[in-house]
Amino acid sequence: MHNKSAKSRSYWQNVWIQFRQKKVAMLSLYTALFLFIIALYAPFIASRLPFVWTDNSGVTTYPFFREFFAPMDSKEKLIEYLFNYLALAVPLLLICFFLCRRYARYLLIFGLVLLLIPFIALQSRNQPQDFSRLEAAGVGSGIFAPINYGPYQQEFQPKLPPNWAQSAQKIDKTRKGYNLLGTDEVGRDVLVRMIYGARVSLSVGFFSVGIATILGVVIGAIAGYFGGWVDIVISRIIEVVICFPTFFLTLTIIAFLEQRSILNIMLVIGLTGWTGTARLIRGEILKEKQLDYVTGAIALGVRSHRIIFTHILPNALSPVLIGISFGIAGAILSESGLSFLGLGVATPTATWGELLNEGRDSPLSNWWLTLFPGIAIFIAMTAYNLIGEGMRDAMDPRLKK
Amino acid sequence: MLPTLILITLLSYMMMRFAPGDPIKSNMLSSSDTPAQIQEGESEAAKQFRKHFGLDKPWYVGYWYWLTGNPNIPGSKGIIRGDFGISITVNLGTPVAELIKERLPPTIKLNLISIVIMYLVAIPIGIYSAIFKDSIFDRTSSIIFFMLYSLPSFWIALLAIIVISKYLPWWPTSNLDPSIPLTESYWNVLLITARHYVLPIICLAYGSFTFLSRFTRSTMLEVIKQDYIRTARAKGLSNKKVIFKHALRNSVIPLITTSSSLLPALIVGSVFIEFIFRIPGMGMLSFEAISSRDYPLLMTTAGITAALTLLGILISDITYGVVDPRISLDK
Predict the structure, then answer these.
(1) DSSP E strand boundaries for chain B
(2) Do the chains contact at A247 and B286, CB–CB below 8 Å?
(3) Chain B CA closest to residue A343
(4) Pairwise CB contact (< 8 Å): B146 & A386
(5) Is the pLDDT of residue A33 over 90?
(6) Rounded to an integer, what distance in angstroms lies between the CA atom of residue A10 and that of residue A17?
(7) Spatial CA neighbour of A262 closest among A83, A121, A66
(8) Contact B248/B233 with Cβ under 8 angstroms?
(9) I need a surface site. Which of A12, A50, A336, B203 has the fewest CB within 10 A?
(10) Spatial CA neighbour of B53 closest among B34, B81, B27
């Protein structure tokens, strides 16, 4: 009787309960979510375009949404499109699952498709105007985001310290949230670039680890399940990839690429990082393969890919999840390291590492360019590392109370 | 092992040659060249250069030259006879071996010292937090170490430079081996040199504390649970004796074997630390080689790291067998 409720809990529910008890892990989870939300809603926090603009003749336009549905400013359009789409899709997802569970599936699919339409339909854009200056000049009025300038325009004097560290400054009255963290080498606001940089830095973390995990799981599963010469060949390949000096491989590939794009960086980090997962999965599957339930499945005539992916893998998944969390932190570090050395994304794109790179040459006079982006990297990495550690504790069967 | 090494170098060479950009562009493109001249195509000198170093040949011929020696270069014997080749961009005409001999000492010194410090700091803390598992010390040290682990070393190095040059302007923030006048006394020389080492070593070492101490902690926890520890306690040994004589010895074994994985880092060192503190070491050399496409130099550094990684794996396999006779090497 005493463990009736405990019995009905699944493994993952147990893990979640264990995880929830750890304050540090939960705090890290909230921090990671917070960073993710900032990345999603970056344009709503800082944009130079007003949401609604009414000029003096009474014509109302929506400049912000034109840019939002068809991002033109950034070089990494794919990421902008993805995050803008997600910014609308995530609330929809939440609404579907919390408010109307009954029709959730249909509503979700319908909504997701519906959301795609403006992204496809809206292509062109008016010539960008400086709406906040226009408003100051009395040409019209609009509703602006909390910070009314973007990450790519060189709006300010270069190398301005944070406004609270300046003794005297000429405040530009048309600019809200003026230079809280200073400006960079060419006069772009550091805070805004950090907010937009979260998009690139976090997506590098997620996608490169995604690539690495999928590759690692598939390759490791194949090696472990089939054994024999397949295993020998794959183990040899893993050995070769491990012995490739990873960071130098990354550096070499990226230094040699002429077209610097965030996709390349994701690919490189992903393609060099799969070996750990592959070895882990291989080992787990070698172990699980001996167990009776697999023999049973084979005896029932289940196909091998089905055995691997629906019977064995769920049992071997927990170390992979831990690896993903640590991997995201590692990928964020790799990206910022590469950007720091000047081998990161192409110039106008903002990432945390790229901001550090701008402050690299004269750290003394531009201390804010070093301090604040580094804090962002540190917070993100700590959050993901501590989530990983929390998961490790929660999933460790030996620690179960 | 040897086939793996050959495969790695072959792949590296292939990748390098297929990648865009080439040494001639980064070498011959001096400031006097106008864009129009570059448009015109390669000059006679560039063609000569290409031919001399075998860059006009396909990649597999180039790799063969790297292995067995380039017939165009007198005295070139190839890697199989211990000739690393000649640098083609970083320091044109200098043998790669000489460049490496010059750049190796600072990196080795830096890394050896920081490895020693890593072990000295991380292992006692790991042991202590294993003995007092879930104590306040264990939990706080774990969080602090995870935060340290999440601090990018290049960021900390930059911050250290900012803070130190603002508040301790006499403290050195670049270079490792300063030129000290001969008139200084022995202790002064030692002090000045030591001062130069402090920052780079801290920046290199702190990131590895986490891994090592967590690793020590988990192996120690594993050992403490064993039957023989219970036996030792049951026969009335003091806590000190149980921990230091029975538990510690057995939990240090995996640590020794993991240390072999630090071998490659010894050579390549840390690009970031050398970059920021302006230390002319191997990391800087490799970075220069990459950015100016110095193929022979790159091949050497990549080959050495690969060889050392393989060696590290081999050593750890062998030491596993030696320290734990239950693991046999021949199946």
Answers:
(1) none
(2) no
(3) B291
(4) yes
(5) yes
(6) 11
(7) A83
(8) no
(9) A12
(10) B27
Contacts of A374 in chain B (CB under 8 A): 152, 155, 158-159
Chain B hits for A242, Cβ within 8 Å: 309, 313
Contact B273, B203 (CB under 8 A): yes
Residue in the block written with tokens 């008016």: A126
Asked if B152 and A336 come within 8 Å (Cβ–Cβ), the reply is yes
DSSP secondary structure, B95-156, as one string: BHHHHHHHHHHHHHHHHHHHHHHHHHHHHHHHHHHHHTTTSHHHHHHHHHHHHHHTS-HHHH
Quick one: tokens of A138?
Answer: 């009395």
Residue among B162, B268, B271 minimizing CB distance to A364: B162
How many Cβ contacts (< 8 angstroms) between chains A and B? 120
**Tokens, residue A216:** 């690692």
Ordered DSSP codes for A62-99: -HHHHHHHS--S-S-HHHHHHHHHHHHHHHHHHHHHHT
Buried b (16+ CB within 10 A) or exposed e, B285-318: bbbbbbbbbbbbbbbbbbbbbbbbbbbbbebbee
What is this model's ipTM?
Answer: 0.81
Mutate which of A242, A248, A260 to test chain B, going by most B C-beta atoms within 10 A? A248
pLDDT confidence bin for B242, thresholds 50/70/90: confident
Over residues A50-72, the pLDDT tens digits come to 788 788 787 787 777 777 787 77
Interface contact flag, B287 A333, Cβ < 8 Å: no
Structure tokens at A361: 């040459």
Max distance between CA atoms of chain B, in angstroms, equals 88
Residue A1: its pLDDT value, please?
42
Which pLDDT does position A27 carry in this prediction? 92
Kind and range of the H or E run holding A141: strand A140-143
Does A378 sit within 8 Å of B151, measured CB to CB?
A: yes
Does residue A187 surpass a pLDDT of 70? yes
- Tokens 């490496």: give the residue: B100
Chain B residues whose CB is inside 8 A of the A367 CB are 162
